[in-house]
Amino acid sequence: MQDVAERAAILVIADINGYTKFMLSHRKSLVHSQMIISDLLNSGVKSADTVLEVAKLEGDAVFLFAFKKDGEMSWDATGSDISAWTTRVFDEFNRNAA
Predict the structure, then answer these.
(1) Residue 49, Cβ neighbours under 10 Å: how many?
(2) pLDDT of 49-72, one tens digit each?
(3) Which of 2, 33, 37, 54 would bridge 26 by S-S if both were Cys, CB 3.0 to 4.6 A apart?
(4) C-alpha separations of 30 from 15, 22, 23 in Å
(5) 39 in helix, strand or coil?
(6) Is the Cβ–Cβ distance between 10 and 82 less than 8 Å?
(7) CA distance 85 to 48
(8) Which domains does the chain show, CATH number per domain?
């Protein structure tokens, strides 16, 4: 068995709040509802590739992670990158929802 080095990581779960209620309230246009949710998740996944890695995509949630940048003593730079990613995802969703 190969030795696995320990590395500090940040775990992120991006979950769509109210997913079930949203889907149920849009039953008549279920395909459109699914497209909206799919677009939202895809925009998060696409923009995450420079900051976070996708571990798993399940239903209305994406499980992502990031390792501390090499040589970094604190999480400041990585945390800033994740914060900027979060803002980009919200901005992208708001542009598409308008």
Answers:
(1) 10
(2) 778 888 888 877 888 898 877 677
(3) 33
(4) 19, 10, 7
(5) helix
(6) yes
(7) 7
(8) 9-97 (3.30.70.1230)
Looking at residue 17, its pLDDT comes to 73
Residue 18 in tokens: 């109210």
Q: Amino acid identity, residue 65?
A: F
Q: Are 16 and 40 in contact (CB under 8 A)?
A: yes
Q: What is the CA radius of gyration of the chain?
A: 16
Type of residue numbered 84 = A
Question: 3-class DSSP state for residue 11?
Answer: strand
Question: Tokens at residue 75, please?
Answer: 């999480």
**3 against 92, higher pLDDT:** 92
